[in-house]
Amino acid sequence: MTMAHLTIDDLKSQARRLREAMSAAGTPLTHSAALELVAKSHGARDWNTLSALAARTDNVPAPPATVGAVVTGEYLGQRFRGKVLALRKLSNSDYHAITLHFDEPVDIVTFDSFSAFRQRVSGTIDGRGVSPQRTSNGRPHIVLDA
């Protein structure tokens, strides 16, 4: 059974069209019976099973983290552990704006004679928790561990 592109609304529309066609042919059908027949036509045991499968494949990706979650990863190549203070999906994109507060400040400078510590940072990440922005050596600014 493939549900990759069907939403619950698509399936309900199929049930409505089936019900209308059956009624026009002289065999009235209740809405719940039409839903059950649509489920069977997709190889599911019943409507509840089919609607659960459709809900999981509704093309709404889960965010890479949640507000308040403790996360680990790398910021500018330095390991961190911290808390997600804010996370919001950027409109019309697959990216999220994120604000992190590290448990311990992270020194983002790699040479010995100078230091620059950061404890609260903001950036942009994709659905995998990786920022599209890169350092001069090609490393992502933020990488959240899976």
UniProtKB/TrEMBL annotation:
All residue ranges annotated as the Glyoxalase-related protein domain in the record: 1-145
Disordered as annotated region, ranges: 125-146
Read off the InterPro entries from this record. Answer: Glyoxalase_8
This protein is called Glyoxalase-related protein domain-containing protein
What species is given as this protein's source?
Ciceribacter ferrooxidans
- What are the leading ranks of the lineage? Bacteria, Pseudomonadati, Pseudomonadota, Alphaproteobacteria, Hyphomicrobiales
